[in-house]
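Example for tutorial group B:
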């Protein structure tokens, strides 16, 4: 019995298609707080960074689902 990984055609049949490109997340804008309590601007920078990270992660998950790599539900 020949194993599937030794048969090039069988291996290609199992391969999926590549998912669409996902752009890298932009550089973080937040920095360590200057004092012991963050200012509103420092807090807002963290919130903005978190929003961009969420968008990037959700984009990656959507592309993995579209490529059939992970289940859609």
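The residue assignment follows.
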């Amino acid at each position: 019995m020949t194993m599937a990984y030794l048969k090039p055609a069988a291996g290609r049949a199992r391969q999926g298609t590549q998912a669409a490109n996902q752009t890298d997340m932009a550089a973080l804008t937040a920095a360590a707080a200057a004092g012991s309590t963050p200012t509103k601007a420092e807090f807002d920078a963290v919130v903005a960074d978190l929003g961009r990270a969420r968008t990037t992660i959700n984009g990656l998950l959507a592309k993995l689902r579209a490529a059939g790599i992970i289940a859609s539900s």
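The radius of gyration is 21 Å. Compare this with the pattern of hydrophobic and polar residues in the output above.
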